[in-house]
Amino acid sequence: MEFEPVIGVEIHVELKTKSKMFSSAPTSFGMPTNTMTVPYDLAFPGTMPIVNKEAVAYGIKVTKALNMTLDKTLYFDRKNYFYPDLPKGYQITQQFRPIGKDGYVIIIKDGQEKKIRVEQIHLEEDTAKQIHLSDISLIDFNRVGTPLIEIVSMPDMTSGEEAMKYVEAIKEIVTYLDVSDGKMENGSMRCDINISLKEKGSSVLGTKVECKNLNTLMNIKAAVDYEINRQKEILERGDKVEQETRRYDEGKKMTVLMRKKTDAVDYKYFREPNIIPIDLDDGFIYDAIHSMNKLPNEYRVELKEKGLDNYEIEELLKNRSFVLYFEDCLLLKVTSAKVLWNLLMVEVMGYLNKTEKNLEDLKFPKEYLVSLANLLADNKINSKQGKELLAKLLEENANPLELVKKLGLEQISDPKFVEEIVDRVLQNNAQSISDYKNGKDRALGYLVGQVMKESKGKCNPSLAKEMIQNKIGPCGKR
Amino acid sequence: MIKVTREIIDQCAENLMFHLTDDEIEMIYDDFDSVLVQIDFLKSIKDVDTYEPMTFPYKEHQKVMRDDKPSKPLSAKDALKNSKTVLGTQIKLPKVVGNKNDTIDE
Fold it and tell me: Does a structural domain hold residue A25?
């Protein structure tokens, strides 16, 4: 029997607001335990929730970016459960009226676009962090109340790769919008994945297994693929898949049982009575949408128009700060975006990695890097000179244009000047010409080298090479 | 009408991790009789689906939201003042998930 995987993803994205979703406590990550709370977070009697405006603005941005319908009235609901991570005894969420619904994202798989539908996104609050040690559990309330957006996909994915690409697309969108740092390893983006298998062609869904603890993109792919195979083996044996929650064990490279779900949990949702429905002002919605950062897919189109290939675009998009830097540079009359890309993504990035610095640590104006790229693209300096100028630029913030003048480096591409030297070199190197004609192609390099030597490195080597070839004809056969 | 049996009450108690004595089960069982009568009465009211649930006493909505300005948080000492069991600056509880010797972050 053939089976088809059915995969849906729920992603919790922690928002980058300065304060919490319903209280004014700060949200800083990595602070000493239990130092980021106000009485509301600890459910002290008489404290009331007040909605964070910025978190709502972020919700509007994500709604728009995921092509969703925005609910212009905010309603919140209580999800009731008894567990140490929420002292109120309930989480405030948006069960019945999510801020956004019916959207989609596009993923690219094997060069083809695939639309993954997003059912809804809702605003809610995070829970406290618990650490379960060998015999006790510890609670840190710093995280409690941090604003979250939960993004719920439709079960449109069929493989580990698709699930990974979907999560990657969401991560890209929230980080480009700058609403979250999207760091999966820090838990600011957390994924739960539901996986089931159904008979091929059937509309009857199989029993689903929820997979948690997926803190890298590669783990998502590995866990989903592992789980598909595990369930397939169970079904092929004639057994039944049990409804359970599993987590991915990175060391063992397998999913392991966390708990069995015997009964569906009833959270007794009801409307949050302490928050009167909030009508979102048209001006507020307009401002949120019109202050949105450019999204990765917009950059893909623009960078392609500038002449970058897919590899160059994807490498650049991996880091938004490099994209912004590159974008700023492109506003400064760049001769070749490819040459600029090469300088930034190979040379500058290599330097930053080696010296453990960030782009923000570069003290020279972007004009300098563009000038250097243009000197190279216009063949005014050769690549060796380019590297020397770049080193001076990175270490001493030296202006490449001034350095070229000061050091007399500017490459000469004046055909008359180059031809004079080429003729002189050919006249004095009859043996090399003869070698070339007899099939020694390396002789051409020697002749170009002589031109460079005669011109003290100033001649444009490509032009000199072209002229020599025109004058002495093709390389002979040995 | 749903028939609430003593077995259902016992099962619910187990799901909620409460222990109920036989007397307590009996008491809840008796209480349910009147609760179910009231539910049946509510069920007899027709066409309630066309009405929005009345969560709020007013029909008015609000536009008030809070600016994203953090205030000074409580110190760990104050935050933990009401907790009976503290380890360092964290609340200590009996282990609630996983097997003995497992370390899990949640």
Answer: yes
**Measured between alpha carbons, how far is A427 from A118 in angstroms, rounded to an integer?**
73
**Domain-embedded: residue A478:** no
- List, in order, residues 6 or more apart from A302 with CB less than 8 Å away: none
Domain boundary residue, one of A390, A407, A424: A407
- What total of structural domains would you count in chain A? 3
Q: Give the three-state DSSP class for A153.
A: strand
Full domain range(s) for residue A461 = 415-472
Give the span between the Cα atoms of A341 and A315, in whole angstroms.
10
Looking at the complex, does the CB of residue B11 fall below 8 Å from at least one CB of chain A?
no
From the list A353, A340, A354, A351, the residue with the least C-alpha distance to A312 is A340
Return the number of other C-beta atoms located less than 10 Å from residue A98's C-beta. Answer: 27
**Can you give the pLDDT at residue A75?**
96
Decide if the complex's ipTM is over 0.85. no
Residue whose entry in the numeric block shows the structure tokens 């077995």: B7
Q: List Cβ neighbours of A333 (8 Å cut-off, separation of 6 or more).
A: A370, A374
Residue in chain A lying closest to B72 (CA)? A25
Q: Where do the domains of chain B lie?
A: 6-48
Please report the pLDDT score of residue A368 as a whole number.
95
For residue A343, give the 3-state DSSP assignment.
helix
**Residue A201 · residue A144 · CB < 8 Å:** no
Whether A289 is covered by a domain: the verdict is no
Size of interface A-B (CB pairs under 8 A): 148
Please tell me whether residue A204 adopts helix, strand or coil conformation. coil
- A52-58: average pLDDT: 98
CB contact under 8 A, A53 and B65: yes
Residues 6+ apart with CB under 8 A from A111: none
Is there a contact between A129 and B106 if contact means CB atoms under 8 Å apart?
A: yes
Last residue in a domain, options A378, A407, A436: A407
Same domain, A142 and A251: yes
For Cα atoms A149, A214, A102, give the angle at the middle one, nearest 5 degrees. Answer: 35
Q: Residue B106: what pLDDT? A: 65
CATH of the domain at A459: 1.10.10.410
Q: Which chain A residues touch B14 with a CB distance below 8 Å?
A: none
Which residues in chain A have Cβ-Cβ distances shorter than 8 Å to B91?
34, 84, 138-139, 141
Average pLDDT score over residue span A176-181:
96
Which pLDDT score is estimated for A254? 92
CA of B24 to nearest chain A CA: how many angstroms apart?
21
Residues of B in contact with A39 (CB under 8 A): 74
- What are A120-171's pLDDT values in tens digits? 999 999 999 999 888 899 999 999 999 999 999 999 999 999 999 999 999 9
Q: In this complex, do B15 and A263 lie within 8 Å of one another by their Cβ atoms?
A: yes
A309 and A237 in one domain? no
Given this model, what pLDDT does residue B98 score?
60
Indicate the residue type of B11.
Answer: Q
Q: What is the pLDDT of residue A262?
A: 64
More confident residue, A474 or A117: A117
